[in-house]
Amino acid sequence: MSDEVSINEVQQEEADSLESNNEKLLISEEHTSETDEILDDILELPRGQALEIDKTYEITAAKMTKLIVLAGSVESGKTTLITSIYHLFQRGVFAGYMFAGSKTLIGFEQRCHSARISSKNSNALTKRTQRGISDSILHLSLRDNHYQEEKKDLLITDFSGEDYDSVIANVELAKLEFNIIKRADNFVLLVDGNNISHKNYRQSTKQQSILLLKTFVDGGLLGCDSRVDVLISKYDIVKLRCEDPKILRFIDTFKKEIETDFSKSFKQLRIYEIAARPSPETEEIGLGYGLEKLIPNWVESNSEHGHNEYVEYKPNSYSEFNMFAFRTLGHKNGYENEG
Ligand SMILES: Nc1nc2c(ncn2[C@@H]2O[C@H](COP(=O)(O)OP(=O)(O)OP(=O)(O)O)[C@@H](O)[C@H]2O)c(=O)[nH]1
Ligand SMILES: [Mg+2]
Predict the structure, then answer these.
(1) Is residue 61 located within the same domain as residue 35?
(2) How far is the CA of 283 from the centre of ligand 1 (A)?
(3) Are residues 259 and 141 part of one domain?
(4) What is the mean pLDDT of residues 301-310?
(5) Per-residue pLDDT tens for 104-158?
(6) Element (H, E) at 140
(7) Which residues line ligand 1 (CB under 6 A)?
(8) Cα of 56 to ligand 1 centre, how many Å?
(9) Does residue 274 come out as left (phi exceeding 0), alpha (psi in the -120 to 50 range) or beta?
C-alpha cells in the first residue's frame, strides 16, 4: 500500500514537473518572440568611426556623393590633409563652405588627436596609417555659406602609403587593389614636399610619383574622364629650403614633366602647392595653405558617375575596394551579369 502511494506520488510529481517545464517553455517562447520584436525595433547607431567601404553604401545610395581618393607614398601627408580640412571647417567658413555634419566624427577626432596639445606631443604629429586597414573612409557634409544650394557630401579615402608603394609599376596588382579609383570623382596624388626638396631624395620621389600615375593609367584606373590633382605637400618646408635655386628649378621641371606626360591623358590635371599643417617657423604660410582652391573643385566638379547613369565597369576581383565601386556604380555592370 505504502509502495502504491509512493508510486502515485512520484507519478504526480513527474506530471507536475512536466507541466511546469511546459509552462517555462511557453514563457521562454513568448520571451523569444518579444525579444525578437524588440531586436527588430533596435536601430544600429552609427559608431562615428571611419567607414569601411561597404558601410558607405547608405550615404552613396541616398545622395550624390563625391568620392575623393587621396594617394601618395608613405608620409606624403594624406592623413594630415584630411585632419586639416576637418580643423579648418571647425573654425568656421572656409573656401565658401561650412561644416554641415559628418558620419565619421570619431574617425576625424582619432586622426587629429596626436596633433593636439592634449596629446602631449611637442610637435604636431600624424600617426602612420596602417597597411590594409578596412575602415578608411571619412565622410564630410558641406553647405555653401549663403545657404543657396543643398548640402554636398564628400567621401575621402585615407589609405596607407604602404598600400600605394606596393603597387608601383605593378599594373595587375594595382587593378586588383585599387579598382575604387575608377569611381573617384577626384584622384589626388600627394608628392612629399619634404622629399622632393631634398637633394638625396628628390630624384626617387619624382620617379615614384610619375610611376604611380603611369601604373594607374596603364591599368585603366585613370583615363580621359579623370580629374587629377597633383599636390606638392609640406610647402612650408620647400619654402624654408628655397634659398637654394636648384630646389625650385627641380620642382618646376617636375611640374612641367607631369603636365607634358599626363595633361592629355585626363579630363583635368591641376598641380598645387599645399601646406596642410605648416610648421610655426613659416609664418607667411598658414594652416591649410593652398586648400581654398582645392576644396571648391572637389565639391563642385560634375561627376561622370551619377547613380542613374550607366557606367561601363566590370570589377575583376572581389576585394573590398572593388566591391565599393561595384555597389556605387550599380548592378547593371556588376557580378550579376558575369556568366
Ligand atoms: N611641415 C609640415 N609637415 C607636414 C605637413 N603635412 C604633413 N606633415 C607631416 O608629415 C608627416 C606624415 O604625414 P601623414 O599625414 O601621416 O602622411 P600619410 O601620407 O598619411 O602617411 P601614411 O599614413 O604612412 O601613408 C607627419 O608627421 C605630419 O605631421 C605640412 O604641411 N607641413
Ligand atoms: Mg596616413
Answers:
(1) no
(2) 19
(3) yes
(4) 48
(5) 999 999 888 766 655 445 565 677 777 766 678 999 999 999 988 889 999 999 9
(6) strand 135-144
(7) 72, 74-80, 124-126, 128-129, 160-161, 233-234, 236-237, 275-279
(8) 26
(9) beta
Other Cβ atoms closer than 10 A to 208: 21
Burial of 50 (0-12, 13-18, 19+ CB in 10 A): buried
pTM over cut 0.90 = no
Same domain, 35 and 58: no
Computed from CA positions of residues 112, 114, 117, 118, in that sequence, does the dihedral angle turn out positive or negative?
positive
Asked whether residue 185 falls in the same domain as residue 282, the answer is: yes
Please give the grid coordinates belonging to residue 139.
565622410
Q: Which cell goes with 219?
A: 591599368
Q: Are the C-beta atoms of residues 251 and 196 closer than 8 Å to each other?
A: yes
Q: Is the pLDDT of residue 52 over 80?
A: no
Nearest to 250, CA basis, from 198, 212, 190 = 198
The kind and range of the H/E element at 262 are helix 245-262
CA neighbor of 86 nearest in space, from 75, 70, 97, 76: 97
